[in-house]
Amino acid sequence: MTAPETPTPRTTVEYIRYRIPEDRSAEFLAAYSRAARELAASPHCVDYELARCEEDFGHYILRITWTSTEDHLEGFRASDLFPAFLAEIRPYIGHIDEMRHYKVTSVRGTGSAVPTLYTWAGGAEAFARLTEAFYAKVLQDDLLAPVFAGLAPEHAEHVALWLAEVFGGPPGYSSTQGGHSHMVAKHFGRDITEPQRRRWVNLIQDAADEAGLPTDAEFRSAFLAYVEWGTRLAVHFSGPDAKPPSEQPVPAWGWGAAPPYQG
Question: Do 185 and 158 meet the contact criterion of CB atoms below 8 Å apart?
Answer without folding.
Answer: no
